[in-house]
Amino acid sequence: MCLHSYTLHTKINILFIINPISGGRGKLAIPDFIDKYLDKEKFNPNFVFSEYVGHAAELADEASIKNFDVIVAAGGDGTINEVATKVLKHNKILGILPLGSGNGLARFLSIPKNLRYALTIINSLKVDQIDSAEFNGKCFFNLAGMGFDAHLSSVFSEDKKRGLSGYLKLGFQEVFHYKAQTYLLNIDGKEYTRKAFAISIANSSQYGNDVYIAPNASVKDGLLDVCIIKPFSLLKLPVLSYVMLRGTAETSDMVEIIKGKNIVITREKEGAVHVDGEPLQMGKHIEGLVKPLSLNVIVP
Ligand SMILES: Nc1ncnc2c1ncn2[C@@H]1O[C@H](COP(=O)(O)OP(=O)(O)OP(=O)(O)O)[C@@H](O)[C@H]1O
């Protein structure tokens, strides 16, 4: 493990990229709040709001090329994905202010939703390295997946309402119509054929909101957890929800988890996938891999 606490001679340029729509709450007051609690002996703060999908990535890329050493994703896992992809590319340092709906990676890293506490973590500037991963060349840091998860992300992205309640409502509507597919998986050279309701490739352990799909996954182990949710009768939906909330999916007969580094999945047809909850379209053939301890991130 490589954990640094930086000793400073000059102030660090830090950029906060704030997603105004993540988590479904207004963010206009956020820059003033950050300015009040950020350690200005250490940091020289700048703020910018993302204006559209992909804008946070453009802003982070630009900031990395300019003189910013720390770039903070103020939003959920989708915002972290955009910012961290560029932080990784330029070998800068990622900060996280969890302002999303689910905040899966922030929860895994024990970064609290309470902004004031989250800022004390940024002020402490303890930097650790975590694994990142790729799905057909697209970076992800928390979870990627296909099947029902991906279908739901795709429908949710077109819905006007954000936040947890909107997501759950849509989930209940969609689960009644969704049909399981057959997947051919190759995990580190070993082949498996599985019919699945959803397949998640987990770098961290949870979707967000403490819903654990891969309770034993770690962003420090150099492995991905391939989580196969088997087809199930809707009568068993409460059982599946229960095991995920209890963090016991590994022991449930509804979920199979296989750990690996290189994952190739061939599915019945092309269509929706998600990377960190954001929907994308990909072909039938998907390749996943892990890049051990590749991302610098500020941790508690
Ligand atoms: N100004 C904007 N208008 C519309 N969409 C935006 C804007 N800025 C960023 N986005 C997009 O908002 C999406 C959702 O962001 P994010 O994932 O951070 O929030 P969330 O879905 O509420 O949280 P979580 O992923 O933790 O559940 C991302 O795809 C991002 O590209």
UniProtKB/TrEMBL annotation:
GO cellular component annotations of the record: plasma membrane
GO biological process terms, semicolon-separated: phospholipid biosynthetic process
Keywords assigned: ATP-binding, Kinase, Lipid biosynthesis, Lipid metabolism, Magnesium, Metal-binding, Nucleotide-binding, Phospholipid biosynthesis, Phospholipid metabolism, Transferase
One GO MF term: kinase activity
Domain of life of the native organism: Bacteria
InterPro entries noted in UniProt: ATP-NAD_kinase_N, Diacylglycerol/lipid_kinase, Diacylglycerol_kinase_cat_dom, Lipid_Phosphate_FormReg, NAD/diacylglycerol_kinase_sf, YegS/DAGK_C
Entry keyword annotation includes Magnesium: yes
Cofactor(s) needed by this chain: Mg(2+)
DAGKc domain: residues covered: 9-139
Pfam families in alphabetical order: DAGK_cat, YegS_C
Name this polypeptide is given: Diacylglycerol kinase family lipid kinase
Taxonomic source organism: Pedobacter frigidisoli
Origin organism lineage: Bacteria, Pseudomonadati, Bacteroidota, Sphingobacteriia, Sphingobacteriales
